[in-house]
Amino acid sequence: QEHLVDSGGGLVQPGGSLRLSCTTSGRIFSIYGRGWYRQAPGKQRELVARIYRIGAPYYTDSVKGRFTISGDNAKNTVYLQMNNLKPEDTAVYYCNQDESWGQGTQVTVSS
Fold this sequence. Notes:
Layout: E1 3-7, E2 10-12, E3 18-25, E4 35-39, E5 46-50, E6 58-59, E7 67-72, E8 77-82, E9 91-97, E10 100-101, E11 105-109
Parallel strand pairs: 2-11
Antiparallel strand pairs: 1-3, 3-8, 4-5, 4-9, 5-6, 7-8, 9-10, 9-11
């Protein structure tokens, strides 16, 4: 069973920044196809961003211009840089690749 390990969440004020990280334990993956989902209380889990081998990364409309997904193949790690955070970004963020999921990391944006 492949495992993803996500981290980097926390409490931040509106307008602040956080960087999430997702790495693996177990068999080594390529970073391509890895992405971030989030789930806010009472809402469905949604895809936030995903990185591909070819072509531009995917971003959901609400984070375009604020979030950036990137990867380091040598470290087998994918990052989600989140800038200008808003209260509506508050959610548990999950790393995903194929059938594997991270345990989730809480992001709370509040003054």
